């Protein structure tokens, strides 16, 4: 399979390494210094693209992939205000996208467990949920895209909370940025997400259900970026197989398929 990589930072390098290990060919690598190569013949011959860039460039990259007829796997976070518009393009038959805020198989299992636990907690009003996420100091957005996804899944399954927010209290340093967790009223309908930025932490996400009697905590801690990169390559394999090649425009030809997909589709959760 020919994979185009868009974004050649730490994740891009690791995706390249894992893709080659799995026997795939890298058709083209696109970074800030060669953005025009997204219009190249090499790019158009790709079976799938994997996009990990920045929030301010992601949407344009996705639209250019759609125009080229290339299915794309995207792991860039921080642009979700534009997701409905991008999803609409896919659903109209003009593109194929598999988006996830986190491609780690473990994180997606954690999200499923969190959803299930939220449903159980609907029967126990004494428990109040909160969240914390910890990432490396280079991460620009907060809460993390993964934390937002976990929060929205929890909210959808819960009759306790109907929105998420960051606590108002915050403190910043050059090495660590933190929003502190503060106890909230048990009748609160807000799921509070605190964040910390420390060193080179790949990512820790924790959901806590607190009551006057006890505390239940579930957590996922990434050991490296490798799990994210492997998941992205697995997603690219799945999407390319599902789509093969699709026509640009509303008419599907042959076995080609367009549409918007997530890791839930891939993992069948």
Task: Describe this entry's structure for a reader.
With 269 residues, the chain is α/β, with parallel strands linked by helices. It has helices at residues 10-21, 41-44, 55-68, 83-94, 105-121, 145-157, 226-243, 263-267; strands at 2-6, 25-30, 48-51, 72-74, 96-99, 128-135, 163-165, 171-172, 177-178, 190-197, 204-210, 215-221, 259-261. α3 (55-68) packs parallel to α4 and α5 (105-121) packs parallel to α6 (145-157). The model is unreliable at 170-184 and 247-255 (pLDDT under 50). The longest helix is centred in the C-terminal third of the chain and has 18 residues, at 226-243. The strands form 3 sheets. A 6-stranded parallel beta sheet has the order 2-1-3-4-5-13, sandwiched between helices. A 5-stranded mixed beta sheet has the order 7-10-6-11-12, covered by helices on one side. 35% of the residues lie in helices and 23% in strands. β11 (204-210) and β12 form a beta hairpin.
Give the % helix. Answer: 25-40%
Query: What is the ordering of alpha helices and beta strands?
Result: EHEHEHEHEHEHEEEEEEHEH
N/C terminus separation: 26 Å
Number of strands: 13
How many alpha or pi helices?
A: 8
Strand content: 15-25%
Largest sheet: 6 strands, parallel
As residue ranges, the low-confidence spans are 170-184, 247-255
Q: Over the alpha carbons, how many angstroms does the gyration radius reach? A: 20 Å
Strand adjacency order, main sheet: 2-1-3-4-5-13
Given the helix and strand composition, which structural class is it? alpha/beta
Mean pLDDT: 88
Specify the overall morphology.
Answer: elongated
């Amino acid at each position: 399979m020919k994979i185009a990589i868009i974004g050649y930072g730490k994740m891009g390098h690791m995706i390249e390494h894992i893709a080659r290990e799995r026997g795939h060919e890298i058709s083209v690598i696109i970074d800030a210094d060669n953005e025009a190569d997204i219009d190249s013949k090499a790019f158009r011959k790709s079976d799938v693209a994997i996009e990990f860039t920045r929030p301010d460039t992601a949407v344009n990259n996705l639209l250019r992939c759609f125009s080229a007829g290339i299915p794309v796997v995207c792991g860039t976070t921080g642009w979700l205000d534009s997701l409905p518009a991008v999803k609409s393009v896919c659903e109209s038959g003009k593109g194929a996208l598999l988006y996830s805020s986190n491609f780690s198989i473990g994180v997606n299992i954690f999200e499923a467990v969190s959803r299930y636990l939220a449903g159980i907690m609907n029967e126990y009003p004494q428990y109040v949920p909160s969240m914390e996420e910890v990432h490396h100091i280079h991460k620009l957005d907060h809460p993390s895209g993964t934390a937002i996804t976990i929060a929205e899944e929890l909210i959808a399954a819960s009759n306790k909370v109907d929105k998420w927010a960051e606590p108002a209290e915050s403190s910043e340093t050059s090495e660590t940025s933190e929003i502190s967790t503060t106890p909230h009223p048990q009748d609160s309908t807000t799921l509070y997400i605190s964040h910390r930025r420390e060193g080179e932490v790949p990512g820790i996400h924790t959901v806590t259900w607190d009551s006057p009697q006890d505390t239940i905590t579930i957590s996922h801690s990434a050991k490296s970026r490798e799990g994210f990169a492997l998941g992205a390559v697995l997603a690219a394999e799945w999407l390319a197989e599902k789509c093969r090649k699709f026509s640009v425009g509303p008419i599907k030809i042959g076995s080609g398929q367009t549409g918007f997909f997530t890791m839930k589709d891939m993992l069948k959760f």
